[in-house]
Amino acid sequence: MNKIRRLFTIIGLFLLSFQIMAATDFSYADKMFIKQCNYLAARNTLDSLRNIVSGAEDRSELLWRLSRVYLVLGEQEKDRTIKHSMYSKGESYAQEAIDLNPKNPYAYMWHCASVGRNCQLKPLMEQAKSVPIMINDLTIILNDLSRTDISEAWQALAEIYFHHPFKSNDCAINFMRKAISEIPADELRLSSYIFLSDMLVKRDWSAEKRKKGAQISKKSFDAAKDNIEKYSFSDCRQTGIGSCSDREEAVSLLLSASTLYKSAKFHSPNDIKDYEKLKNKLNEIKR
After folding, report:
1. Per the confidence metrics, is the pTM higher than 0.85?
2. Looking at the domain assignment, is residue 93 inside a domain?
3. In terms of Cα–Cα distance, which of 150, 148, 179, 149 is closest to 162?
């Protein structure tokens, strides 16, 4: 009898541990979000886990994912009031994720993104107030936590520098190069290549000017005191930026992205849309 009781106890503990493991496994929600672009399914999956997941770190993981979902759902809305509500909810979830685990870089990432989207709905003078908040989030990720492998953080920084009237487009380009170098191997993110190509075409430096800039960049890169300062300059050993013009780099980038797309075994709905944009951009630059 005691052996049977012990057996049922062991089985019960196994089933309980399995439930906890399943509850903290976010792979299905991530698949719905990244691969299928089924944002409602991702949200429903995460909502179903909210009353199950316990522990500060696991709840932080859950909440930043909810923040990410609400940001994209907000982007799909046309009504500005609904957009604001979605972005604010995403911002709130991300802040809660930060409070639960101040060392979670993705909590800061999606807090930054939500603040950024929300500020676009505000009058121009009020938008400027959001920039320091966003830069603080990114500084924590890239400098304080030293998570230089998060592509989205570099792209967010690039977008701030590119669109801000008092920031450097040259830094934005270098941040974007770093962003592309950190894209996960199982994702394409063709829109990142398109964004960098747009910036390069707009700047339109000659090969000679890039070569002179590369000499300065190398010294500054090596002497930088933190990650953001370092990657505001190009790592010439990796990019070979002195050997071609901006337009030539833009074409090379898009051709590389096209090759990646053609060799990929899976294409998300966003990949398919972005590939059409990429082909149009390539034709536009080549004219």
Report:
1. yes
2. yes
3. 179
